[in-house]
# Entry
Amino acid sequence: MRLGMLGACALALTCGFGGTAVLGVATARADYALTILHINDLHSRLEAINKYDSTCGSKDEADGKCFGGVARIKAKIDDRRAALSAAGRNVLTLDAGDQFQGSLFYTTYKGAAAAEFMNMIGFDAMAVGNHEFDDGPKGLSDFIDKVDAPVLSGNINVENEPTLKGKVPGTLVLEVGGERIGIVSALAEDTVETSSPGPNVLFSRAEDYLKGAVEGLEAAGITKIVAITHMGLPRDMEIASRVPGIDIIVGGHSHTLLSNTFEGAAGPYPVLVQNPSGKQVPIVQAYAYGKFLGEIEVVFDDAGNVTSASGNPILLDASVPADKAVAARLAELAAPLDEVRARVIGSATGTIDGSRDTCRAGECPMGNLVADAMLERTKAQGVQIAIQNGGGLRASIEGGEITMGEVLTVLPFQNALATFQLKGKDVIAALENGVSQVEEGAGRFPQVAGIRYSWTRARKPGDGRIIQVEVNGENGWEPLDPDKTYGVATNDYMRRGGDGYKVFAEAGMNAYDFGPGLEVVVADYIGALQDGYTPFTEERSREVK
# Structure
């Protein structure tokens, strides 16, 4: 039962942090346990996904190789709610933001489909994610009008934004099992750079808001406080270390898998951070795209102190049967997407070669198209260089009308546009990696924009195959400066180190991996050309014998 909403802000305190395996608190009797079921960063993956996080095909589904999807999320949440309730446990179901952006369901239905399935699943609260602003304040407003769960974000001021005024509380109070639970929320402050909140939505530092909000809840006699944030794990750790009174943080934004059992996890579930009062604050996150359902049990003593926090994310694989009602409705909404796939988005004056043999061995027309589209989309952010792996290009497009379905065939992986900063020497290292396996036809060959380079296979891989690199500067082509920092655009798979581009993950600075889908970036670029796209190559990568 919802009791009410509160909001406040004040100055934050700071303190160091650390983590221990056991929360050392008090001698008071532990008498209240709360289980939180949570997801984050679904990104419109309403259908099941494959191991690459893109839409799962019918064959993989038949072979039991699919994960997630709203029908599985619904089934597993219903199953866990029923089991916990039967055991007399108290349950909250939370979404840490970014329902928007990432599939044709969002392109077609915007937030309406997300709201419908959230209502079918039944969430108690949701945090605003930065991508909830991708269609401006009105897109978020329309979503809020349709979804049953309160949508929270406390460090944004929407009083001067007519479409959102009065719609986005920062704090919520719920009664669960006879206890009042306070919920606070905050959103990444750089949303103004990563999405489209508009000039009327103002952001304050999360710590400043949360400290005052927590104090307000405590003044109202509420001692059990949950933060649902869309900040990313590093910022959640800072918040835990600086804001007293938060008992647990359920986060999103960084797509982090925390787990005690799954291989490749970034840390334990939960991560523990010491707050300014010396108490350990558990932090959880459950990867992204609906692949996992997080489940954490927090036990409080009589004074509202957390005495233990334990759990693990649940993998939503083929062992989880899909909810039939959700699956049926999803199939209804999926049917018209064929019309979207047939939509004409522009034209080409000739065939755009994106064949495997061409794009994995040298400059190809499709590589130039995709790299140019990425650079055009990000140049206003100071990006000078775009790099796309040739293996990410999966088809050619014939001359004439171009449909969205053709673009999706070229770029089927639902990769997002990523931006970061990189030293010139590390750009060279990235290109070295890109040409290191050309003999094997590996997918890492670098298709580029904003730079041009010469290379040779006469040298061993990694042993100076890159001979010369130039960047298109203010005065035309000039040598790449190894010590200068450049803005770079790529796809999120490469930015995280995929295809051997570990230098992006290790040396990249100020990275942001969650831009629009590459298929949208390319479709928009083609659509803006009045006379159609003319395929070309121009020795952006020149092989020297």
